[in-house]
Structure formats: structure tokens, C-alpha cells
Design brief:
Oligomer: single chain
Order of helices and strands: HHHHEEHHHHEEE
Largest sheet: 3 strands, antiparallel
Distance between the termini: 16 Å
Number of helices: 8
CATH class of the largest domain: Mainly Alpha
CATH topology of the largest domain: Arc Repressor Mutant, subunit A
Number of strands: 5
């Protein structure tokens, strides 16, 4: 799997949202130099301008204004604002519970926005744990436990970048190209799969991807 999905996620993360393109595009749009600087904070190496521009042009949710060299870019679809203005014990408890399963049930592009909210929720419970009405909410996480069926005690891990690529392709309805690494081997096999993810299944703590083989219609993986 390549790094293009990471680039897409990061571009959608840093580009400003413009609601009225006629009046606000020039004032709020972001130039290529600033895009490059902000990408440098999120990924390494930073793609060349040509690749960034080509990726931006493919995104339906991105608009632009101006000439080629001075073109300004922006988002035309607003990302959800996950910041909770009035945090309380119940909301903080719910956010902490969500965090326990979010990395297996939400795409990485959404998790990026939720990270601050998760941290705020835990800090809220930590700060107010001495209060009688909040102490039980703080201690709740230690009172519940998930036991994963008949699978091994140590579940197979999914690298963060693999999850980002798969969840991103599933979220945006994109194809994936990948190679499998046979059990006991350290290097991927030669065969290259090109498929469209249809679903992710969490079976007793083990993640599976259901995908459709584009080169062999009707074949699932």
C-alpha cells in the first residue's frame, strides 16, 4: 500500500474550510508553500508539489482559486467539529469508553479529529475525580473487562499505517493494492492484490478485511 492515502488524509486535515467560495476563497485559501510546510509536520518525506497538486485535483471536496503558481486551495465540505464545549461526567465517561474501541471501528481520518476530545475527556475525569458524582465515572474503566473468545491471549497487532490505509480506502470507497506476508515469513509474497474493501469485521478482537477483487469480478478476499 502506498502513501497516497496518508497524503489525502493530511490534506483534508490541514486545508481551510470555505463555505462561500465566491466571497471567501481568496481570503481563506491556502497556497502551495503553506500546504507544504504543514504537511512537513504530519509526514516525512513531503511529496513534491506536482504530486500534491495532482492529488488535490482528484478530490471532489477540494476547490481552488487563482492562477497555477498562485493558486489557493480549500475544502468545500466541512469536517465534523468534535470539540465538546460543555464536558460533563457522563460525556467524559462515554468518550473514554469509545476510545477503547475506536481504533477498530472508526477510520483514521476521523480518529485524528477525535484525539483531542479523548484527551480532554480523560483529563476532565482525572481533574474532578475527588468529586462524589465524578469519582465513579473515573473508576468505571477499571470495572469492566473484555475477554476475547477462543483466540490466543496475545492478539495479532495491526500496524497503525496499515489500519490508516485500509480504513481510509473503506471510508472513501477507494481501491487498495497490497501483498500478504505468509505466516512465519518476514517478507511479503510476490502476488499483488488490487481490491476494493467492503467491510472490516472485528471477530473476538481479530480484525478481518472483506474486499472485492476488481481484477477477478465476483471473487472476495
Amino acid at each position: 500500500m502506498g502513501h497516497n492515502q496518508t497524503l489525502v488524509d493530511n490534506l483534508l486535515r490541514i486545508l481551510p474550510y470555505v463555505q462561500n467560495e465566491e466571497t471567501d476563497a481568496m481570503a481563506k485559501g491556502m497556497g502551495m508553500a503553506e500546504i507544504r510546510d504543514r504537511l512537513a509536520v504530519l509526514q516525512n518525506p513531503v511529496p513534491v508539489d506536482k504530486q500534491i497538486r495532482r492529488t488535490l485535483l482528484k478530490l471532489d471536496s477540494v476547490g481552488s482559486v487563482g492562477a497555477t503558481r498562485g493558486k489557493l486551495w480549500y475544502r468545500t465540505i466541512q469536517r465534523a467539529d468534535f470539540h465538546i464545549q460543555n464536558m460533563n461526567a457522563n460525556m467524559a465517561m462515554a468518550m473514554c469508553a469509545l476510545k477503547q474501541v475506536a481504533d477498530r471501528h472508526l477510520p483514521a481520518v476521523v480518529l485524528d479529529d477525535l484525539e483531542t476530545t479523548f484527551d480532554s475527556a480523560w483529563r476532565y475525569l482525572e481533574t474532578h475525580r475527588s468529586q462524589p458524582t465524578i469519582g465513579p465515572a473515573h473508576d468505571w474503566a477499571r470495572k469492566i473487562l473484555r475477554i476475547d473468545g477462543t483466540h490466543p491471549t496475545v492478539l495479532p497487532t495491526v500496524p497503525a499505517e496499515v489500519y490508516r490505509q485500509v480504513s481510509g480506502a473503506l471510508y472513501y470507497n477507494r481501491k487498495l493494492s497490497f501483498r500478504n506476508t505468509p505466516f512465519g515469513e518476514k517478507t511479503p509474497a510476490e502476488r499483488l492484490y488490487v481490491m476494493t474493501p467492503l467491510a472490516m469485521v472485528d471477530r473476538a478482537g481479530v480484525l478481518y478485511m472483506v474486499a472485492w477483487g476488481t481484477r477477478q469480478p465476483g471473487k472476495r478476499f
